[in-house]
Amino acid sequence: MSASIVNRYRYPFLFLTIIVFVAVWWVVAKIVNDPYALAGPVSTAKAYYQLFAQSSLRNLFITSIESTLLSIFLGFVLAVAIGIPVGIFMGRYLVVDYLVDPWINIWYSIPAIAFVPLVMNWAGLTSISALIVSFLIAVFSIIINVYTGVKNVSASLVEPAIAFGISKRALYTKVILPASTPNIMVGLRLGITRAIEGVIVAEMVFSVVGLGGMIFDTADKLEMSLTIALVIVISLISIALNYLMKYLDHKVVFWKESSALKRE
After folding, report:
1. For the ABC transmembrane type-1 domain, which residue ranges apply (predicted)?
2. Rg of the chain's alpha carbons, rounded to an integer?
3. Are the CB atoms for 51 and 226 separated by under 8 Å?
4. Side-chain half-sphere of 43: how many Cα atoms within 13 Å?
């Protein structure tokens, strides 16, 4: 199938896959026939009505979304503010690379859930803990990708600029950062995904105000339809943030699409 046909029918294909997914979900729920194990699409739709019809539940839902989004945003911004400079220094200076790289690899290999008890001892059972976990999970993805991008900047770009007497600041802003921008954007896209993961995991474990905490509470009460409804909300938030980062990627790295290999 040619790429032009796929692009033309992209959204109909997407709509069709959603219909197929809902149909399979409905069939599996009928086979399981246990609302405490797997709620079907109809009961999940009713859960959304319940979520907005009951004022107390609606207020909790809105507060939870605000808390989760704030933790994701602050954790991600902090990860960007620290991850990009660290990645640049690792990529440019060999001594920094040798000192920091082993620790980055060790921390990056640790599962998200392993950070939770450490952070719990540092910050207690608060929303601040979710922010810290979000930062710790996201920052290493950003560091590694920025480091890779800066390290692989071609010498044919850097050496002539130095030979012509470019200032150190201009070397970074005019040569190194533009050349490593594709890797930086990949790091940001991975970082936002990891930030979401960190916040939700922390909220579930700490059972604090947030979508993760609501999921834990509803699952604990065997309110499976509400649990699935909240999981879908988190999925939609994740998709929206990823599409936002993808849009920024296309705008910032505008030359990448024109030079990329055409897909079949």
Report:
1. 65-245
2. 22
3. yes
4. 18
User: Between the CA of residue 142 and those of 72, 151, 187, what are the distances in Å?
Assistant: 15, 14, 4
- Encode pLDDT of 82-139 as tens digits: 999 999 989 888 898 889 888 888 887 877 677 777 777 777 777 788 888 889 889 9
Using DSSP, state whether 96 is helix, strand or coil.
helix
Q: What are the angstrom distances between the C-alpha of 213 and each of 58, 61, 68, 184, 237?
A: 15, 10, 10, 32, 16
Distance CA 125, CA 138 (A): 20
Domain limits, the chain: 1-33, 37-255
Q: Which amino acid is at 114?
A: A
Contact at 8 Å (CB) between 202 and 67?
A: no
Instruction: Give the model confidence (pLDDT) of 32-62 as tens digits.
Output: 888 777 888 888 888 888 888 888 888 888 9
Q: Does domain 37-255 have CATH number 1.10.3720.10?
A: yes
Is 252 within 8 Å of 189 (Cβ atoms)?
no
SS3 59: helix
C-beta of residue 206 within 8 angstroms of C-beta of residue 125: yes
Amino acid at 84: I
Q: How many CB atoms lie within 10 A of CB 97?
A: 16
pLDDT tens, position by position, 151-160: 888 777 777 8
Chain centre to alpha carbon of residue 41:
26
